[in-house]
Specification:
By secondary structure, the protein is mainly α. It has eight helices and no strands.
Length: 203
């Protein structure tokens, strides 16, 4: 993970605490965030230019933490099935425990007329690179173990993986046929569908 200054990290954690506490992120102010972080409003402005800047930074901070966690877990896996199972456990945890707070922050940010400052461009590019590297490793393992047909191009494989991931996230907002009312069951059903999609697309 990027080496965040202690106070900047505290600001991000303050936003997350507000989101988990049920605060309306459309209505909170920089002062509210400063209070949640336990620092002065002036200190917040030493790191950020606006509330929107803070929200954008918080999302990227969360993505960075998630990537650190899954990369560490995947390092212990050496097989295609092992990596898929590891990814499934991680995605299930994210979808069940943390997705709602992420969506709240992103929704608040998207409704604003302001955009994330250019200072985040490099970080976004680096995070995309890390995700692409994980996706390519999965394809490499799948090919080596004969789990991906030779006629499947790398571009096709990466597209299918993105489609499966997008479907997972979207399905959490609407019930799947056969899924029960419990959130955990919904997530398990979504993960099973995503894995079936990969098997059919590659096999």
């Amino acid at each position: 993970m990027r080496d965040y200054p202690k106070k900047e990290r505290g600001i991000f954690e303050g936003v997350l605490a507000l989101a988990e506490g049920g605060a309306d992120l459309h209505l909170i102010t920089v002062q509210d965030i400063a209070r949640a972080a336990g620092i002065g409003k002036g200190t917040v402005y030493e790191y950020f230019t606006s509330k929107e800047d803070i929200l954008a930074g918080t999302i990227l901070y969360c993505i960075e933490e998630e990537l650190d966690g899954i990369e560490e877990a995947l390092q212990r896996e050496t097989s295609y099935d092992g990596c898929l199972a590891c990814l499934g456990r991680w995605l299930g945890e994210v979808l069940e425990q943390r997705l709602v707070r992420y969506l709240l922050i992103m929704d608040s940010l998207q409704r604003s007329t302001m955009q994330a400052s250019e200072r985040y461009c490099g970080q976004v590019h680096a995070q995309r690179g890390r995700m692409l590297q994980m996706a390519r490793r999965l394809v490499t393992l799948g090919r080596a173990e004969g789990r991906i047909r030779p006629d499947c191009t790398d571009d096709y494989c990466l597209y299918v993986q993105r489609a499966a991931l997008s479907g997972l996230v979207l399905s959490c907002g609407s019930p799947l046929p056969g899924a029960g009312p419990e959130p955990g069951q919904q997530v398990r059903q979504a993960l099973a569908c995503a894995r079936q999609l990969l098997q059919r697309a590659f096999g």
